[in-house]
Amino acid sequence: MDLCESGNLRRWWLFYFLPVFLLTNEVSLQETIEGFIGESAVLPCSSEEHPITIQDIEVLWRHNGKNVYEIINGQVSVEGQDPEYKNRTKSFPEEYLRGNFSIKLNNLQHTDAGNYKCYIMEESVIKREKNLLIKLLTKGA
Questions:
Q1: What do the Gene Ontology cellular component annotations say (predicted)?
Q2: Is 1 helix (H, G, I), strand (E, B) or coil?
């Protein structure tokens, strides 16, 4: 079967090259946050579009597939939060209407190093995706 037949070339291109484009785009948006073991770090995540109401907004924070933090309909939800992050995360509710959904991660651990993702969703549609890398440093280095 020829690739050009019945749109197969288009599907082949999308299948092989679109993920590469998305991956490249994702890496270019990554921001590095530096912190020290035992201290705190603020992980920024905001939307240029300020929500008129926060009732339809969902914000999901993820690290290695784990649920770090969730804001659902303007309320913090710790129901499905990974135990590793319990009582170590907080957000800034007074900033939600400004489109700021940053979180503060306290008492940084070795396991906190790595990639984080923040998804801002409105009516189940991802409006913004932010990639962060936490790099842990040694004091005096």
A1: external side of plasma membrane
A2: coil
Helix (H, G, I), strand (E, B) or coil at 55: coil
Query: First and final CA of the chain: distance in angstroms?
Result: 60
Tokens standing for residue 97: 């209407």
Give 1's pLDDT tier (boundaries 50, 70, 90). Answer: very low
Which residues are bridge partners to 61 per DSSP?
Answer: 69, 118
Residue at 69: amino acid letter: Y
Q: Report CA-CA distances (Å) from 61 to 5, 20, 54, 77, 113.
A: 43, 24, 17, 11, 14
Distance CA 76, CA 84 (A): 17
- Contact call for residues 46 and 101 (beta carbons, < 8 A): yes
- Per-residue model confidence as pLDDT tens digits over 30-39: 789 999 999 9
